[in-house]
Design brief:
The structure holds two protein chains of two kinds.
Chain A (H helix, E strand, L loop, with lengths): L8 H9 L4 E7 L6 H10 L5 E4 L10 H12 L4 H9 L7 E4 L2 H7 L1 H10 L2 E5 L9 H8 L4 E6 L5 H10 L4 E4 L13 H13 L4 E4 L5 H7 L5 E4 L1 H8 L4 H18 L5
Helix pairs in contact in A: 2-12, 3-11, 6-7, 10-12, 11-12
Chain B lengths: L2 H4 L22 E2 L2 E5 L2 H18 L2 H13 L7 E3 L1 H7 L2 E6 L9 H14 L4 E6 L3 H13 L2 E7 H6 L1 H9 L3 E5 L6 H15 L3 E3 L10 H24 L5 E5 L4 H8 L8 E7 L4 H4 L1 E5 L1 E6 L24 H8 L3 E6 L1 H15 L5 H12 L8 E6 L7 H8 L2
Parallel strand pairs in B: 4-14, 5-6, 5-8, 6-7, 9-10, 9-14, 10-13
Antiparallel strand pairs in B: 1-2, 2-12, 3-4, 11-12
Classes of the chains: A alpha/beta, B alpha/beta.
């Protein structure tokens, strides 16, 4: 693992993306008592990076599954500090990316959160309710610790706005596949492909599609014009429904296989 | 519909253009509070509302129509009533701005009519709202019925139980009422659900937010639609007393009726501005800045930043946050915010009913309760209270609590 000062999430992802479609599972910290094992398991199942969700009391951008996962984790006593300290006790072979609502970072303190996240193996943050207009302070504090801040693009994002998003994002562009909250869907509509194509047309920064990826089939569709996919709610659903870590990791392995079969590595 | 007569009706002086409570900065901040902290899918929708509002608010035809609708449909102007009996009992000169006499029973109709006209101007066909006590939901359902729009209202499951009558009213008016089942199942959760729904329906739907909160331009727009309260009250108080009130008081949850009242007096430094908060939801008193519901504002939170659940006898004030402009007024000490307890509210509710023949909403009773508490320091002063709503919706709940 490179040190925080000379590493680059964009370089890492671009390198991986030259070999296969990127797969980025999401795990809510504290969704089950052995959630760290779940992180290990999804990495073993073929993750290129893992999003760690830090649960918030009022997750307005999330659909019912991540809300439910957040409630379970909060009831189990999960906090930002506990999440970061538990992560810090282990080594993971891939970049970790913290995803949460901005208030938890703001309240923790920008500098302190950036430092603790870096110490915990974090490479980046995804803060969907912090648009770039309000994000300069956090981005600056984060970069001083080698942490990138990932920006999102949505189907309604204008071309002008998209230009700013690709210029200011760190690591990759999070392509929101649909106009809705997070959540697994039976199908991913064309909007994901259209938006991913728009992103790819204006930048070399990797584009990764999230929202609505529920299985190998939707992942393959969503990854068509993009560099990879994020799978969150479908994975958390397995755990919330009482599934084992192996059963949850199986979903990630299925998607990995589906992507690799549909998009065989070059050469 | 009243559009035809709009051009000929004389607009009230709707442009208060107060200096202190003026426009937010271009990113939607009042001092350090406000902003537009929403996900990328909602940025465009907020921009669309902002553009439409700025254009409409600067358009004399829109202003004239809004004024006409407020008057001919909303029942404005609402009177200011001098409370001779209670004034004598409390040793203050007590005046009530009677927003309880508006159509649908509270100040909420001002904002809703403004936003409904704006929604129509934007070509929207569906109104979406959150509601606490149900007053904003009833007002939105009313405006939707009047303009021939469909309407969905999110309401906390707990609030639906304690305000069952308002749920029936909304349904009677043709609205769909959907219970918010997450979190504390009260107002803050209804806001979360409404914002989630807005993301997926944004093309045809206008989110008719009910208080001076949420992402820019809502805090500014909602206050602007309510400024008529303060403008009318200032003129009416001057007619009664020949001058300004010494204190202007309003209850505060998110803070819409208070914002409307304060806007009329913010530039008069001699007028004390006081917000009465429920003790169980005292965002100004116990809050610290947070970013939630699209804005930076004072919120009650735990030490790591999880938002706490408010607890109040009144569903309409059961909100752990305080709108950004109020947060700014609190920080700069232009306005003062004090907590009152549920017991004090119940006493005020009964006192105003008995002594003046006016049954206030439990929300509005908070403002009366503060006056009762502060009567010694207010002795001999002229106190203007915004009686934001009537108490019909609350009598059953109060009957149960009092065990009568």
């Amino acid at each position: 693992m490179t040190t925080t000062t000379d590493r680059s999430l964009q370089t890492y992802l671009t390198d991986h993306a030259s070999k296969r479609k990127l797969l980025m599972p999401y795990v809510t910290a504290g969704v089950c008592p052995d959630w760290l094992e779940l992180v290990d398991a999804v990495i073993d199942a073929g993750a290129d990076a893992v999003e760690i969700g830090i649960p918030f009391s009022d997750p307005a951008i999330d659909g019912t599954t991540i809300q439910e996962a957040s409630v379970v984790a909060l009831d189990a006593g999960m906090t930002p500090a506990l999440c970061l300290s538990e992560l810090q006790r282990r080594q993971f072979g891939v970049p970790l990316i913290a995803m949460t609502h901005y208030n938890l970072v703001y309240r923790y303190g920008h500098e302190r959160f950036a430092a603790d996240l870096a110490a915990a193996g974090g490479w980046a943050t995804i803060l969907p309710d912090l648009p770039f207009e309000h994000g300069a302070d956090w981005t600056e504090a984060a970069r001083s610790e080698g942490i990138e801040n990932v920006l999102l693009a949505a189907p309604v994002t204008s071309d002008e706005r998209l230009q700013t998003v690709v210029e200011r994002t760190g690591g990759f562009v999070y392509v929101v596949s649909t106009m809705g909250t997070t959540g697994a869907r039976g199908a991913v509509d064309d909007a994901a492909t259209v938006l991913a194509s728009r992103v790819k047309a204006v930048t070399d920064v990797p584009a990764i599609v999230g929202f609505g990826i529920s299985n190998a089939e939707t992942a393959v569709t969503a990854a068509q014009a993009a560099d990879g996919v994020i799978v969150a709610s479908a994975l958390m659903r397995r755990i919330l429904d009482g599934g084992t870590i192996d059963q949850a990791a199986e979903l990630v392995a299925d998607i990995r296989k589906g992507l690799d079969d549909a998009y065989p590595p070059p050469g | 519909m009243t559009t035809d007569s709009a051009a000929t009706s004389t607009p009230l002086p709707l442009a208060a253009s107060p200096e202190l409570m003026g426009e937010p900065d271009e990113l939607g901040f009042f001092g350090e509070f406000g902003g537009r902290f929403v996900g990328e899918p909602l940025i465009g929708a907020c921009q669309e509302v902002e553009t439409a509002f700025v254009e409409a608010w600067g358009d004399p035809a829109f202003r004239a129509e809004f004024t006409d609708v407020l008057n001919t449909y909303g029942g404005r102007p609402s009177p200011t009533t001098e409370c001779h009996n209670l004034s004598e009992q409390l040793g203050v000169r007590l005046l009530l701005k009677r927003e309880d006499l508006n159509h649908t029973g509270s100040h909420k109709i001002n904002n809703v009519l403004g936003q409904a006209l704006l929604a129509r101007r934007m070509g929207k066909t569906h109104l979406l709202a959150e509601t606490g006590a149900g007053q904003h939901g009833v007002a939105t359902a009313t405006a939707a019925a009047w303009l021939g729009m469909s309407c969905t209202v999110y309401m906390g499951e707990v609030d639906m139980a304690r305000q069952a009558l308002n749920v029936f009213r909304m349904r009677l008016l043709g609205a769909e009422v959907i219970p918010a089942m997450s979190g504390s199942r009260t107002l803050k959760d209804a806001v979360n659900e409404a914002m989630r729904a807005w993301v997926s329906e944004v093309t045809n739907t206008h989110y008719c937010l009910g208080s001076v909160m949420g992402p820019h331009p809502y805090p500014w727009m909602v206050r602007s639609f309510h400024e008529i309260i303060g403008i009318e009250a200032k003129e009416q108080v001057a007619k009664i007393t020949g001058g300004l009130p010494d204190v202007a008081v309003a209850c505060v949850g998110g803070g819409s009726n208070a914002a409307g009242l304060f806007a009329g007096f913010a530039d008069d430094p001699s007028v004390r501005l006081v917000g009465a908060e429920p003790a169980g939801g005292a965002a100004a008193g116990r809050g610290v800045p947070a970013i939630v519901h699209g804005m930076k504002a004072y919120f009650m939170q735990d030490e790591v930043g999880q938002i706490l659940e408010a607890e109040s006898i009144s569903a309409g004030l059961d909100y752990p946050g305080l709108g950004p402009e109020h947060s700014h007024l609190a920080l700069t000490e232009r306005a003062e915010y004090y907590p009152v307890t549920d017991d004090e509210v119940l006493e005020a509710f009964q006192l105003l009913s008995r002594s003046e023949g006016i049954i206030p909403a439990l929300e509005s009773a908070h403002a009366i309760a503060w006056v009762m508490k502060a009567r010694d320091e207010l002795a001999g002063k002229t106190v203007l209270v915004n009686l934001s709503g009537r108490g019909d919706k609350d009598v059953e709940q109060v009957q149960e609590i009092l065990g009568q």
